[in-house]
Amino acid sequence: MTQQMILITAALFGMLSVIFGAFGAHALKKILSTEQLQSFEVGVKYQMYHAIVLLVLGFNFNTITSAIYWCFTLGIILFSFSIYGLVLSDAKGKKLRFLGPITPIGGLLLVIGWLLVLIHFF
Fold first, then answer.
1. Alpha-carbon distance 70 to 5, whole Å?
2. pLDDT in tens, 74-114
3. Which of 71, 74, 82, 84 is nearest to 112 (CA)?
């Protein structure tokens, strides 16, 4: 894991968060229920929050460990992207139920990432 890899990952997740947020606010607004749209927005928010954290940690490269990077990266993918898949598949009438258990695993990885940050600063 290099500083460049962390910063590229952060920038990619941040960029995708803006794209997905705009997509949700405009294109999906007409086909999603209010509840589905809110769920989609949760995925976007958590993705952006953690992209920003990766960016900050990437600029302070000496303070990040591989475990923190991978917890946040995999956590974003499993948490946010499973929400996107659940919402979009539900809107199409074919909910991908296998994604349901993946979301909390992603959330757990995000929590572990934060715990590792806390431990690192102690």
1. 11
2. 999 999 999 999 999 999 889 898 999 999 999 999 999 99
3. 71
Domain definitions of the chain by residue range:
3-121
Contacts of 88 (CB under 8 A, 6+ apart): 28
Instruction: Report the amino acid identity of residue 91.
Output: A
Residues 6+ away with beta carbon under 8 Å from 13: 47, 48, 50, 51, 54, 76
List the structure tokens of 83: 């929400």
Instruction: Give this prediction's pTM.
Output: 0.92
pLDDT in tens, 7-21: 999 999 999 999 999
- Exposed/middle/buried for 96, CB within 10 Å: 0-12, 13-18, 19+? middle
Q: Which two tokens stand for residue 24?
A: 């949700």
Give the helix ranges, DSSP H, for 1-122: 3-26, 34-59, 66-91, 102-121
**Whole-Å CA distances, 109 to 6, 19, 55:** 17, 24, 18
